[in-house]
Design goal:
This protein has helices spanning about 10-35, 40-70, 75-105, 110-140, 140-170, 175-180, 185-205. The protein has about 210 residues and is mostly helical. α1 (about 10-35) runs antiparallel to α4 (about 110-140) and α5 packs parallel to α7 (about 185-205).
Length: about 210
């Protein structure tokens, strides 16, 4: 008997979020290289980066990985992958703290600390994209993925959404922007276009 084909999950939001983290790390590195680490707009961008990263990983840990773990019971290799995801999240805490400390004290090695953060987070995101997302596609349903996205939306709340959406679209090209926004309900797209993006731009995060 033929096995039913698993419906394709749209990971556009996950990829867009990862790309926003990569973009902010590039902006942080550029600001540090230019001696602007203590500028208010750089601090604002850094604080938002940390907030978005913490929220993203908190909801993954509470609402995504447990779903995957339930689906891979009895599959040791896949369970090890989930353990690696958890360990990589934990590895980020001291690296983030090191950048925080370096920015506060104006440390001479701040560029190296930022580079280490980019390496650790970059390796984790690549690992997730290359191995965890294919596993999710294999064992979860579209309904499971929508439940995870719903948990993320509840954690963000309206105030968080008003920053998250324009933060994602900041710097996207037309193709990337369309791929991301096409996954959103029409009211969200309208709010982003009419209100959220303009408020976000006024903050001038990173000085760009």
């Amino acid at each position: 008997m033929a096995v039913a084909q698993q419906a394709q999950i749209n990971f556009a939001v996950m990829y867009a979020t990862h790309d926003a983290f990569r973009r902010d790390l590039q902006r942080l590195a550029a600001a540090v290289a230019a001696g602007r680490a203590k500028a208010p707009e750089v601090r604002d961008g850094w604080e938002n980066f940390k907030f978005q990263l913490h929220l993203h990983h908190t909801v993954e840990d509470s609402d995504l990985w447990p779903r995957v773990a339930g689906a891979v019971s009895g599959r040791p290799a896949d369970q090890r992958l989930l353990d690696e995801m958890e360990a990589e999240h934990a590895q980020l805490d001291p690296v983030l703290a090191a950048v925080d400390d370096g920015m506060a004290r104006g440390s001479a090695d701040l560029p190296a600390r930022v580079a280490e953060l980019a390496r650790v987070l970059g390796d984790h995101m690549a690992h997730e994209e290359n191995e965890a997302l294919p596993l999710i596609q294999d064992v979860l349903t579209g309904k499971d993925w929508d439940a995870f996205r719903g948990a993320m939306a509840r954690k963000q709340g309206p105030k968080g959404a008003a920053v998250y959406f324009p933060w994602i679209t900041d710097g996207q090209n037309a193709t990337e922007r369309k791929a991301f926004l096409d996954t959103m309900p029409a009211p969200v797209k309208a709010l982003n276009k009419l209100f959220w993006e303009s408020s976000y731009r006024k903050r001038g995060m990173w000085g760009v």
